[in-house]
Each structure stands twice: as structure tokens, then as C-alpha cells.
Amino acid sequence: MTPRTGRLAMVAVALIGFAAGVVLSARLDLFPPSEAISIFGGAEKPSGGGTGTPAPSVNLPDFAGLAEHVAPSVVNISSTQEVKGGPLAPGGPGGGPGGGEDDPFHDFFGPFERFFGPPRRMPYKAKSLGSGFVIDPAGYILTNNHVVENAEEIVVKLPTGKEFKAKVVGRDAKTDIALIEIHGASDLVPVLLGDSDELKVGQWVVAIGNPFGLENTVTAGIVSAMGRHINQGPYDNFIQTDAAINPGNSGGPLLNTRGEVVGINTAIFSRGGGNIGIGFAIPISLAKEIVPQLKSKGHVTRGWLGVMIQKVTPDIAESLGLSEPKGALVSDVVKDGPAEAAGIKQGDVIVEYDGKPVSDSAELPLLVARTPVGKTVKLKAIRGKGTETFSIKIQELKEEETAERATGTAEDLGLAVQTLTPDLAENLGVDRNLKGVVVTQVEPGGPAADAGLRRGDVILEVNRQAVKDADAYKKALKVGGKGKSLLFLVRRGDNTIFLAVKPSS
Question: pLDDT by residue (tens digit) across 158-181?
Fold first, then answer.
């Protein structure tokens, strides 16, 4: 046998042995069938086993029909505004993107944001894009106020590609809603306005708009929360959603699964300006209330109560002897206003308005604003240890009148004061006849600082007791129980606010 023949014989023997081993292992079940790994972490039976069951099918929503139906009603809005000069922005004459980096809440409109980016050295024409939707085939379109505010020219582009110049019919800065109009379009398709009050957290919603100028972009998500307050004004009451919305979506519709508009996309929470899954829309029910006024008068008439209010914190509730931190605390009463005429006093806690409970101070401005001017309403307020009822005739809110909520936080006392003299009062810009003590020093990180007290604040009361000088202030501090919060009434500029200061234990 030659060496070559010997090697071939050895290979043949090895192959025969391997085949015999496979057959034997199969008969002895030495290598059982491998188990498939489920995406849920367990083991799945092989498909040919007969004992396994198929996973239940998941019926995901399909928004194709909805998007096709509503898309003809959503428009692109471009506007031009002359921006005044200032320091040159990064990136040369064109500058960088719009501002808003210091505040995570952005409205989607580049240079026309509420939070402006760095201004340019020379005046220039700024063009920005937003969205809107047709609500009337006669040419009326709903959008955000900040989309068209101060714009010299507004151009509406329809999904068909046709463009029309638009004019502002009416706008309302307090709710960020605007109504514009175009003429000459004969093929406008209006949307169906739904009821945002019926929305529930977890329901599917769809956003359509022009993010970054990408026309008729459709995104979907759910309602993440309702009644959000994001410090954009006294009438905050936003729908929060995780439907992807970005700059350029501003003014576009937020729709329910029936294709009804339930909100107007307005703002996002973002450190970098892009979508991170938290967006906000104005409830369409609020818009429907004011659109008739925008159409007929160009502005909105609101009710006015004539009080400054603030949130009731747990420490303030303890200081006032309240069982729970609810209601709106009256920090000041406007002279000659409706509340003063009805007998409302500083320190009252409003808990009911026109038959509706007031659980949080943010709820009251909306309730008052929606009240027809001239209507007499019943108001309940906690005063001392009792509850009193007042009848108040609501007046009209004028532009010069403010309905801001005074805010104050409270935690812990480390401050120095001195008696307020006429000369000190004049330097502070307050009435020379004002009686109290002025804060001359606040210890960083101390109880007073944590409560929000500042150098220059004038303390008028401690635990509802007037303090006309430093001696009266010291006596008032001793009256408070050990470890309990002290309620300070503070004059700051033209406003008065309550602050609860909890002494260090």
C-alpha cells in the first residue's frame, strides 16, 4: 500500500466513524433539540412540538387614515419680522439658533420665541416657520400668538402648495392663541374641533405640523398629563404629551384618535431645543371659548377679581392653622377693586369660587378669567378658624391690571432686621409712612433664605401680628411656638407676599 492510499483509507474510516456516532447519539437522545429563547426571557417550545401556543397578537393603532383625512387642513405659516440691533451673535450675521437655553420651556418659533437668542449688531429681517390649521372654510386659521406676534408679513402655504398672504384677525398673548385670515382660497378643508375636557391620561394623540420646516409631519404618542402649569402665565393649563413635536410644530393641531383637534401644540421641555418626549399643547376647549371674541373684537375680555394670590405651602398651612395646604392665599387686595368692595382681606384663603372648589392657587385665575364681566359670584374663604362667604361683582380685567400670582417658598430663620425709617423707606422705593422692619442681612442657606426672604424686604407682620419696629418684631417671634413655622407678611417693591419661615430645630 502506498502512503497516498494509506491516507485515503484513514480518512474514509474517520468519516464512517463520525456518521455512526451521529446515528447512535440521536437514538440515545444525547443531544436533545435546543430551546428557542423568548423575547420575554423564557424558553419557547420548537415550532414543530405541538404543545406550544402562539403569542397573542398585538393590535397597534394605525393612524394612516386619520393623517390622510386631516393633512389637508394643516398649513405652514411663515412670517417676517425686523429684529433690532444688538451685540453680534455667534455664527456671523445669520447668528445661531433662537434662544431659550436658560429656560427649558420653549415655544417653537426660532427668533420669535418668548426667550430671544442673542440679538445682532445690525437690524435684519428674520423669517421663521410655524404651523396652523383651518377652522372655517371662509379662510380662518388658528395658530399660536407667538407665531405671528409683531410679524410684518405672514404667508400661509397650503398642502396643495398654494400660498396666500394672511392678516391677524385677533390674538391673545395671555393664552398664546391667535386667529388669522386668508382670502382667495376656494378649497379649504376645516378640522373638527373636539372636547379636550374629555381627554384622559394614557390616551393616544397625534401631532401634525411643520417641524424644522418639514411640511405635514405626523407623529403619535399619548397624553402624559393634564392641567400642567409651566410658568408661562396666569392661565397655564397645558396638555402634556410625548408625541414628538419640535420647533416648527408651534400652532399645529394635537388630535385624538377620532381625528378631532384637542389641543394646539405650543411648547416643549428641552435643554437643547429638540424633542425629548415632553411637549405641551393648549386645550382646545380653552381656545373655543376665546375664538369668538378674537373674531368679533380682536382681543379677549376677561373677568377681574382684584387680588394677588399665592400658593398655600405646607408650612403656610401650618402657620394659618389649616388642616391641609389647599386654596389660594390672598397676599394683597387691590385698592378699589371688586374683592375689596366685597370685604376680602389680606390673609384670607379662597377655597371656593362660583360653586367650584379651589384646590390650588393656579386654578383661581382661570376661573375668574372665564367669568362674564358684571356677573355676581359667591366666593368662600377661610379667615382665622372659620369660613366666610362673599358676593363679588366681577369687573373687566384691563391691560394695565395684573393678575400675577405672588410666589414664595418656605423651608427654615437666619436674618438681621432694623426698624424701617422714612429715609430707608424712600431709598427702598416704598411709602415713607410704611411701618415695619427691613431685612438688612440674610444668611445664605439659612431658614430665611430658604423661605425666599431677601435683603431689602420689609416685614409687615409676623403670624398676622403687625410689627411696627424691631422691638415689636422680636416680641412677635417669641409668641410663635417652638419649631413651628412663622408666617411673615413681606412688602417687596410694589407687591406684598406671605412667606412661611420654619426656625431651625
Answer: 999 999 999 999 999 888 999 999
- Cβ distance 139 to 188 under 8 Å? yes
Neighbours of 433 (CB within 10 A): 7
**Of 107, 176, 315, 412, which one is the catalytic site residue?**
176
Q: Is the dihedral of CA 269, 274, 276, 280 positive or negative?
A: positive
Q: Which of 254, 280, 235, 243 is nearest to 194 (CA)?
A: 254
Catalytic residue among 78, 131, 250, 331: 250
Distance CA 28, CA 20 (A): 12
Tell me the H-state helices in 29-167. Answer: 64-70, 145-148
Coil, strand or helix at 347? coil
Q: How far is residue 362 CA from its own chain's centroid?
A: 12
Greater pLDDT, 359 or 479: 359
CA atoms within 13 A on the CB side of 165: 4
What's the grid cell of residue 259?
381625528
SS3 of residue 346 by DSSP: coil
Whole-number Å distance between alpha carbons of 208 and 162: 19
Rounded mean pLDDT of 57-66?
82
Is residue 176 among the annotated active site residues?
yes
- CA 245 from centroid of its chain's CA atoms: 14
Query: How remote is the C-alpha of 321 from its chain's centroid?
Result: 32
**Is the Cβ–Cβ distance between 186 and 303 less than 8 Å?**
no
Q: Which member of 78, 79, 106, 146 is catalytic?
A: 146
Smallest CA-to-CA distance from 304 within 239, 356, 365 is with: 365
Separation between Cα atoms, residue 167 and residue 250, nearest integer Å = 18
Residue written as cell 374629555?
198
Residue with cell 368662600: 380
pLDDT at 315: 86
In the chain, how long is the greatest CA-to-CA distance?
128
Radius of gyration from C-alpha coordinates of the chain: 33
Question: Is 250 a known active-site residue?
Answer: yes
